[in-house]
Amino acid sequence: MRTSLHNDSDIKEAKQLIRTSFKFIRNNLDASFIETKSNIIFKKFKNIVNISKFTSICVYIDFNHEVQTQKIIQYAMNNNIKVSVPFLVDAHNMKLKYISDYNKDINRNTRFGNGEPFEYCRDCSIDEVSMFIIPALAFDEKCNRLGFGNGYYDNILKINKNALRIGLAYDYQILPSIPKDDNDEILDIIISESKVITAIF
């Protein structure tokens, strides 16, 4: 195990404590904070990432006060980059579907409460993606992430090892370290309003 915690039970308990705290913080963010910070992060993303080097990217649809992604999606589309977004299949698995119109192709009335593509959208092979833009409840300074615990992104990233992996975060979401086990996939870059963290392998 790549952690100082003693066993799987300790790791699971430590993760859950962080999830509970960070869900509470995120649920209480105000609209002006979200919009202001998201705009800063979008501008940093444009400066850091040469979008023309990518042919097909996967971007999450933000919900529950996550860093907003609509501008990144539109920016990619304006540069003729194919954009796919997650479609949840069950409690632990998702697939990817291409969208061509952010306003028309996203279903906001879903069983899981998040925005996802309609069924009619064309499926995207996980191997086609050259960049993933990924959310989380918390990150750390070694580019680890802590999601909701369902393993959606870990399962996808285990299939596609070659794509660039970018996490979008507010500053408060970045901790010095978070609990990690061998099932957790590491990211390449984390972008927040004041930080850019690159993984060191």
Can you summarize this structure?
Its EC number is 6.3.3.2. Belongs to the 5-formyltetrahydrofolate cyclo-ligase family. Helices cover 29% and strands 22% of the residues.
CATH class designation: Alpha Beta
Kindly report the average pLDDT value: 92
Give the terminus-to-terminus CA distance: 16 Å
Helix content: 25-40%
The total count of helices amounts to: 5
Strand order of the largest sheet: 6-3-2-1-7-10-12-13
The CATH topology comes to Rossmann fold
CATH architecture: 3-Layer(aba) Sandwich
Radius of gyration: 16 Å
Give a quick account of the main beta sheet: strands, pairing sense, barrel closure.
8 strands, mixed
Number of domains: 1
DSSP strand count: 13
Give a structural overview.
This protein has 201 residues and is α/β, with parallel strands linked by helices. The protein has a single domain (2-198), classed as NagB/RpiA/CoA transferase-like (Rossmann fold), CATH 3.40.50.10420. Helices cover 29% and strands 22% of the residues. It has five helices and 13 strands. The chain has helices at residues 8-27, 31-48, 70-78, 102-105, 152-159, and strands at 56-59, 82-88, 94-99, 106-107, 116-117, 123-124, 131-134, 138-140, 145-146, 164-168, 174-175, 189-191, 196-198. An eight-stranded mixed sheet has the order 6-3-2-1-7-10-12-13, with helices on both faces. The protein has a three-stranded mixed sheet with strand order 9-8-11, with helices on one face. A hairpin with a 4-residue loop joins β8 (138-140) and β9. The longest helix has 20 residues, at 8-27. The radius of gyration is 16 Å and the shape is globular. The two termini are 16 Å apart. The model has no long low-confidence stretch (mean pLDDT 92). InterPro entries: FTHF_cligase, FTHF_cligase-like_sf, NagB/RpiA_transferase-like. ATP binds at residues 15-19, 145-153. One of its GO terms (molecular function) is ATP binding. One of its GO terms (biological process) is folic acid-containing compound biosynthetic process. Keywords: ATP-binding, Ligase, Magnesium, Metal-binding, Nucleotide-binding.
